[in-house]
Amino acid sequence: MDNFLQLLIYGLQLGSIYALLAIGYTMVFGIIRMINMAHCDFLMMGCYMVYFLVSVLFGGEMIGPAVALLVVMAGSSVIGMVGVGIERVAYRPLRNRPTIMCMISAIGVSIFTQNLFRALPFIGPNPRSFPKLIEDFTINVGAVKISFTRIVTVTLSIFIMLLLWFVIQNTKIGMHMRAVSNDKDAAALMGVNINRVISITFFIGAFLAAVSGSFYASSYPVMQPTMAVTLGNKAFIAAVCGGIGDIRGAVLGGFVIGVAEILVTSVWSEFAYGFCFLVLVVILLFKPEGLLGKPMTEKV
Amino acid sequence: MRMLDVKDLHVSYGAIKALRGVDFHVEEGEIVALIGSNGAGKTTTLRTISGLERAFKGEILFKGENICRTAPDKIVGMGITHVPEGRRVFTNLTVMGNLKMAASLRKDKAAVKRDVEAVFDRFPRLKERMNQSALTLSGGEQQMLAVGRAMVTGGELIMMDEPSMGLAPMIVEEIFHVIDEMHRSGKTILLVEQNAMMALKYADRAYVYETGSVRLEGNAKEMLNNPIVKETYLGA
Question: Is residue B61 part of a domain?
Answer without folding.
Answer: no
